Write the structure tokens for this entry.
Amino acid sequence: MGIAMLPFTSKAQSQDSLAKKVTEFTADKFAERRPFSIDYKQYGNYNSSSTLRGQDLPDGKFTKWSQLSASANINLFQNRRWLVQANGFYRYVSAEYNFPTSTTATSQTVSRDLHYHTEGLNLTYFSKLFGKTAIYSGSINIDWSERSLERVRGVFTGAIVLKANNRTKINVGILYSTDPGMFIRVIPTLLYEHKFNESLTADVFFPRYAYLRKKVFGNGRFSAGWELDPQTTFFLNDLDENGTTYQYRQVDVNTGLLYEHILPGSIILSLRAGVRINPYARTFEKDRSFTDYTWEGRADAAPYLNIGFSFNPFAKPKK
């Protein structure tokens, strides 16, 4: 009886091994860096209140807020110690704001189309610190408005790998930005990834995001959690008669569900839905800080839908 069962046992083990390899391959495909991405997001209507130089303005409603963004991050050089990358980012926002013009029932709608893009170079160095792997990174970026170059800024990070094995990864570090428009310029960072099993993973990169991820359908992955987006920013050149350049910055926390699916050609389709929380929205003179603002807005939570594609045209097919 035991001898008769041996072929079936071997076959079952082979199937389990194959399933495990397929799962690991799928996980590697999700973790694989994709240098190009395109993303479209649409918010539902939401109410907003604001102040200008400390004085309350009439409450209004955003009847439209949609944004299209595209990014690129390309390796120029890489070896055991160094990684040099070129990056670029573009965001377009179309917005409509409806507000009352007097004590009567009349109202006015203002529409704006806003453009922002930035390009830069990033240098990363891998070393040892206290016997642990240490990662140092510095980047120089050039920010542009619709009209001209507005700012050159730098971002510097340092991180140390405390633990890295097949189940758990832990990094701690610190980030510093020279951009006066950042709401916090010195930020501690924490990367934590833990695999509970072959399909369920906790993925945290504080303060950027925190997700619980579950692989499904062979080539799919569901995630639940939140993501911080501090990069909704624009330069405004037409707000007063003095020609002052202002910077608008909005900090969003997007909570909800994310589904990702691996498509042929090393493409990942991502679909998101949830609620956007907007704790900060401010306008300030370009050379002043985020805390030295002229205008401040407070928005209600709003639903959002998001579709995105990321791809790597340089990827080599794997068997």
